[in-house]
Amino acid sequence: MDAAVLAIWVLRLLFLALLYAFLWLVVRALVRDLRAAAREPTAELGRLVVTASPSGEPAPGVSFALDAITSLGRDVNNSIVLDDEFASATHAALTYRGRAWYVEDLGSTNGTFVNGTQIDGLSPIAFGDEIQIGQVRLRLERARP
Amino acid sequence: MNAASATRGLRAVGREARRIRITPRFRGRELTLLLVVSLALLAGNVSLGATRLIQAAQEAGQQPPADLLVLASPGLLTIYIAALFLVHAALVLAGRRTDQILLPTMGLLGGIGLLLMIRLPQDLAGRLGGLAQTQLLWLVIGLTIVAGLAVAVRNDVWLRRYKYTWAAVGVALLLATFVFGRDINGARLSLTIGPFSGQPSELLKVILVLFLAGYLSENRPLLVDESTKIGPFRLPPLPYLAPMAAMWAIALGIVIVQRDLGAALLFFAVFLLLLYVSTARFSFVVLGLVAFVVGAGLLYFVFDHVRTRVDIWVDPFADPNGAGYQVVQALHAFARGGLIGTGLGAGLPSVGGRPPIPALHTDFPFAALGEELGLVGILAVLGLYLVLVERGLRIASAAQDEFRAILAAGLSLVIGVQAFIIAAGNLKLIPLTGITLPFVSYGGSSLLANSLIVGMLIALSERTREPLPPPRPPGRFRRLLDRGAA
């Protein structure tokens, strides 16, 4: 009888232990996945959303995925072309340096504004800030996951 | 280049594409986990078999046999484990880079449920030679569904495009149950069409998530826009709140007409969670909770069956042999279980050959597990549900667009919330509402609906990027709504 009772006990504990072995393996896999996801670089660094654009090019509401360097202006060779009468051919550049975003006026005629204030030269900007180039307003947003 | 070589080139490209598509991909993590699942189920089955042998020997007044290590039901276990590995093989052959954790987790939960069904008296339910065999049949059908969806679903246009069609199907199903449903234990849950009968609310929960994912992902900007002001509240444009109000009304309707408190609670909770997931507005949740409290209060004072449930919850010992019987017996079962339980097959002193808790196999499997596996065992089971939810939310956060994200989050939250509702009900944490414990409870509808969910989650988890479907011009219904808003 003692051997039988012992066997039953061992079996019961073995079943429970295997349940937890499964959970342990799963949790280890989940943690590994999370770490891998945290290391994985996102394809885009940020987004630029058009909030106002009287000329309709770019259309309001359009959002652009950003690389480390983005040039803005009326010339067709810019990363983002702004078809606006008040924008210069090479108006401004948006750059990602280290861990922060900067906007730089490239000697435009009518100037570049961040949240309504005109900037001269290089100026840091944050997510949610609004850039105005000519009559076009663009908002810098976080990258979409 | 002449036409023939161009055709050859195209054919080569086609062959190439086809070859890439069906390259088997080894799924090592899934295989390891499935092996552990098999071992665990084997151990459980042997434990159950040995306990039964000893009990039989004690009843006959003999010494227990020397060879204790027998399987309680070798046939059923073999078929189930074989089915799990066949699904694994199908996924390997399909060669998609999909989730490898959902299938083993579902497999373990289903296996624990099967063990429980093997252990219970076989004549409780089931047309096909008893409880366990019927459950196994549904499990195998469910696993087939998982494999089918996980292998075949590569495109979600048919899901996202027809959201109002899905909603219409859901409402039709609901109305059909209202009108033609059969009453069982005072609740109108089951619908019989020809030879088939089932619980439409199980399928409805999947349809609900589909519709909400389509609706919320399309109208999110409008819902976040706060253009209507009512007193201190800033609300989205009113026409876009109509589906929200409809949802609330449907939940109330389910409680009133179907008397199905569990489904109503599940639908409303999932609806609020998804609203929060898609808009990140806590005010919606507060508003929804206020609506819930008002609705629940009204129902408590107007309807007897709601009041009975709440009164049992407040004090089950007021009528321990009548209304509170189930809950009291469940509490005793948990108490008998203690820390590590009585062991599979050793719990549940039966009353005249029946288990002491009515509806044990559908509504109270958590209490049965609590008795035979103890606190340690049910914590592991709850952990398995958490794993399912975590996987779903991870799939959601890695999804390419909002429709998929909300769909994945919703599907996994349905399982999580449902498990919580019934487990908490069993434990007298919230009033008991009859709903199944996903993958563990006996019942075809529940198993099939939850298999649909897992299959869809695995399909959604594919990591290779495919182009999203092009945006569609707004349909007639949308234009109508816009005109209403203008």
Instruction: Outline the low-pLDDT stretches of chain B.
Output: 12-20, 466-470
Main beta sheet of chain A, described? 6 strands, antiparallel
- In the sheet with the most strands of chain A, the strands line up as 2-1-11-10-7-8
Number of domains in the coordinates of chain B? 1
Radius of gyration of chain A: 27 Å
Range of helix content of chain B: 55-70%
Strand tally of chain B: 5
- Strand tally of chain A, please? 11
Distance between the termini of chain A: 62 Å
End-to-end distance of chain B: 58 Å
Secondary-structure element string of chain A: HEEEEEEEEEEE
Major sheet characteristics of chain B: 3 strands, antiparallel
* Average pLDDT figure of chain A: 85
Total helix count of chain B? 17
Kindly state the percentage of residues in helix of chain A: 25-40%
Helix and strand composition category of chain A: alpha+beta
Mean pLDDT of chain B: 82
Low-confidence segments of chain A, given as residue ranges, are none
Structural classification of chain B = mainly alpha
- Pattern of helices and strands of chain B: HHHHHHHEEEHEEHHHHHHHHH
Which word captures the global form of chain A?
Answer: rod-shaped
Describe this structure in words.
The complex is a heterodimer of chains A (145) and B (486). Chain A is of the alpha+beta class and 145 residues long. Chain A has one helix at 2-39; strands at residues 46-52, 63-66, 69-73, 80-81, 92-97, 100-105, 112-114, 117-119, 122-125, 130-133, 136-141. A 6-stranded antiparallel β-sheet of chain A has the order 2-1-11-10-7-8, with no helix packed on it. In chain A, a hairpin with a 2-residue loop joins strand 10 (130-133) and strand 11 (136-141). The longest helix of chain A has 38 residues, at 2-39. The mean pLDDT of chain A is 85. Helix content of chain B is 67%, strand content 4%. Chain B has helices at 3-21, 28-60, 74-94, 102-119, 131-152, 157-161, 163-180, 200-224, 242-258, 261-279, 282-302, 304-314, 325-337, 365-397, 402-426, 444-460, 476-485, and strands at 182-184, 187-193, 196-198, 228-230, 233-235. In chain B, helix 2 packs antiparallel against helix 3. At the A-B interface, helix 1 of A face helix 2, helix 4 and helix 14 of B.
